[in-house]
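Exercise: predict the structure of this protein bound to adenosine-5'-triphosphate.
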Amino acid sequence: MVAIELDGIRKAFDDAVALEGVSLTVEGGEFFTLVGPSGCGKTTTLRTIAGLSGPTEGTVRFDGEDVSDVPVEDRNVGVVFQSYALFPHMTVAENVRYGLRFTDPPRGLTADERVDELLELVDLPEMGDREPDELSGGQQQRVALARALAPEPDVLLLDEPMSALDARLREQLRREIRRIQQELGVTTVYVTHDQEEALAVSDRLAVMHDGGVEQVGTPVEVYERPATEFVASFVGENNVFSGVVVGGESDELAIEVDERAPEGHRFRVAAPDDDAHAVGDRVTFCVRPTHLDPEAGRNRFPVALDTAEYLGGTTRLYGEWAGREVVLRLPEPPAADSLMVGFDPADATLL
Ligand code: ATP
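Solution:
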């Protein structure tokens, strides 16, 4: 199980800097996801790990060994891209066998035995004689996965492998990928722009923005304790407030937010144990829609409701308070067109 380390990676193209100061470590056997909006540098990071593209500055290490100048064919990585990229004129078995072009089959197996084993692993036994166009999109991606896994790579790299599939198939295939990854214990780096997918499948994830890493953590850490305003808004929905510390006791800050509402514009927010904020400091905090609660006794403010989206079991409500949008989640839409909500100081997160 190979660990991957990126140390101070910068990647400049002629007309753009794609990555700047990217440092992160992927532990051996981990399912690690790079998530972020289009253009933030996910694919460039993955290509740098693969050896498909060399960094302008910085070092890539596999198990502590500098592989920055090692070409892709010598890194023992398996890569699956967005498009299926199967050879249409080859059978499924021939496509999988192509994954063995640089190496002998592992464990003394013949190539045929290895292909059969892989088709079994991705749940496509008996499909070896088919041509790719006789398979569904999801099945084709499983063949691409089998091909990438053929040489028993140290590292599996997946670049939005499901972006061409419909939502239901994506969910099915991501569970399948997770099962296979756990069965093999292969260090895996997965690229997606879909934050929900990133939370669902990863041991840990890196949230990327504008060529840099905003936060690395487990799904729970990133969701519950976003480090930056970008992470707070990109990973799940959030209500982000900015303001000035005007007072507070040891474990709570009183914050006057920028919105100058006639009432309730001073909020109480729990201060972390290591908090060093003083009166006059500018701060930003966020409150999840699920934590804005009509029953909450503290931090109450009125929301003028605008639109409601029924999501099955829960309703997302958009509204307005003091000229800004507020997002709520309630089991059912209220009958009235305005609503008092509040939040517990402990449910607000200082960024
Ligand atoms: P997407 O989700 O859209 O694939 P991404 O997060 O994977 O985006 P990258 O493909 O890594 O982002 O691109 C990061 C930045 O680098 C973008 O601004 C992109 O235009 C630029 N870039 C990537 N490859 C090249 C290239 N070969 N030449 C010039 N600029 C490039």
